[in-house]
Amino acid sequence: MRDSRGQGWIIRKADAACGRRILMPLPVMLLLLLALVAPARAGEHITRIGGLAVTIWTPDDMTTQPAPIVVFSHGFHGCATQSRFLMEALAVDGYLVFAPNHRDAACNGGAARWTDRPEAPLVRPAIWDDGTYRDRADDITGLLAALYKDSAFAGRIDWQRVALVGHSLGGYTVLGLGGAWPSWRLPGVKAVLALSPYAQPFIAHHDLSGLAAPVMYQGGTFDFGVSPALRRNEGAYDLSSAPKYYVEFERATHFAWTDLGHAAHGAIVAYALAFLDHYVREAPAAPLLTQAAPDVSRLRYVSELGTR
């Protein structure tokens, strides 16, 4: 449920069984539980677009006016439905959300195996280049091209208001499309929301200055594998072009942005909406863009709103 300004959220958690199981130490078991979260709810359905299995969240009060669009890229061995709590919140706020299953999806009908290794070692980001996971970038550009030609959707989308959102390897994907890999750059993107993104390849190659859209990085105090690379000196935030934001949530692990997480879901949604509404819809800046909520341990920004 959302208050009149869109700042206050009550987020439904995964069921009690999922809550107990997320204490298991194996990341694969954590990802496996993504297939066990709550079933599809109102406004959510799965279809095939441009050869991809795509989950769509539609605003309940969709009018005849075209809606801003969000394309979500899931994490490695995650899937399109891994972050329902956030996708539903975006749809309730009026965004038309599309989330494809990438080739490496291992839940929600994805064909990948849990034992599949990444294309390149995660511990060797310097050897990654714009050919690494190029299929993910192609999925999103192909999806948008197909939507543009699809009479069922083309007229329902405000093509001047396109945002990219991604978690983990999906964060890598949307940063690349935002211009961090120049050969991937997708024209017309209004904002990039990178949720605990695997940004190390761009740090190694010093390519984040090529971002052509406002970016918000979200990290967590318990996200030990990723967030330090975002916030450190000469890390992803420092190397990115402005407008840029970094918000870090208390007790948030790498899985906080999925339905398996428990920490900071309300704050994650609130900051995501504040950022997207301002830069995609061109709404007045919400106070959250310059103020740290109680669940936030760090907030940094360089933008037209000032510097912190």
Keywords:
single chain, 308 residues, alpha/beta, Rossmann fold, ten-stranded mixed sheet, 10 strands, 21% strand
Tell me the number of helical segments per DSSP (H or I, 4 or more residues long): 9
CATH class descriptor name: Alpha Beta
Overall pLDDT confidence: 87
The H/E string reads HHEEEHEHEHEHEHHEHEE
Shape: globular
CATH architecture: 3-Layer(aba) Sandwich
Could you state the CATH homologous superfamily?
Alpha/Beta hydrolase fold, catalytic domain
- Taken together, the total number of domains comes to 1
| Uncertain segments | 1-42
Cα radius of gyration in angstroms: 18 Å
What would the CATH topology be? Rossmann fold
Structural class: alpha/beta
Largest beta sheet: strand ordering: 1-2-4-3-5-6-7-8-9-10
Which percent bin holds the helix content?
Answer: 25-40%
Q: What is the CA–CA distance across the termini? A: 31 Å
Q: Major beta sheet, specifics? A: 10 strands, mixed
Percent of sequence in beta strands: 15-25%
